[in-house]
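Section handout, structural biology tutorial.
Before the tutorial, make sure you can parse a SMILES string by hand: atoms, branches in parentheses, ring closures as digits. In the record below the ligand is zinc ion, and the chain has 293 residues. In the tutorial you will relate the predicted structure tokens back to the input. Do not try to memorize them.
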Amino acid sequence: MEDYIAKAMVKNGQISIYAGVTTNTVEKARILHNMLPTPTVALGRVLTGAALMSQTLKAMNQTITIQIKGDGPIGGIVAVTDYKAGVRGYVHNPYFDLSLNDAGKFDIKGAVGSGRLNVIKDLGLKEPYIGSVELVSGEIAEDLTYYYAYSEQTPTVMSLGVLIGPDYKVIAAGGIFIQLLPDASEDAIVAVEQGISDLKPVSALINEGKTPEEIIRLIFPKEDPVMLGTCPVSYKCTCSRERMEKNLMSIGKEDLSEIAQDEKGAELVCHFCNKKYHFTKEEIQKLLAQSQE
Ligand SMILES: [Zn+2]
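Predicted structure of the complex:
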């Protein structure tokens, strides 16, 4: 199945629901970053959360960045999405693994530790909107749910899942994201609570071959959700030589002039896709001259 998100409205728009399959996107992240299972699951959940959250954006130049900074072995997680679920991300430490927790699941809480979740929404205005909450669980979905409740005062349900095969490949990944209007009726709240109470883990549903539309109907079997279309999800890095030049110029003249002395030049690696960019000594000296203008 291709990766995509289906959007729907329930109870005359009192409930918005987004369900997405992100298996290929998370597998691509695993390969790009050469990650072991625990970091794959952690980054996969954050990338999936970002993809789902992108559906609340309204314009082409808008982005959402999710940063998780904790004291666990993963060090930190970053994911960025454009307004159409083109996502990219990385973890600070991709090369560790933890044993499964008592429930037999990946110990994401143990990997993340305690710390903070930041959500940076760049809506194309002068200043980005930054919301920051303490991590309440470290399992990602609960933390994003808490962020919406606390920082945006929007009742939200988020469920994110990544299933890993015996060969460490991603066999199923996806999530659901439900938001209620602040003045939603009791009836709508009950419909959401009932819908998610007996729901299997979303990664299990995707592994069974359920489509995002089928997952939405499974959650609201009595409501006849109004389908509002779909959006493809993909892993999309935005790095380029020009961006790397800007990064080099932003480190400051002193550091740049030091690099400009090195006969070997400099190699910059994109955090998001591990692409290498090499700059010769001459190229760096040229950038240094430009930054002094
Ligand atoms: Zn890149």
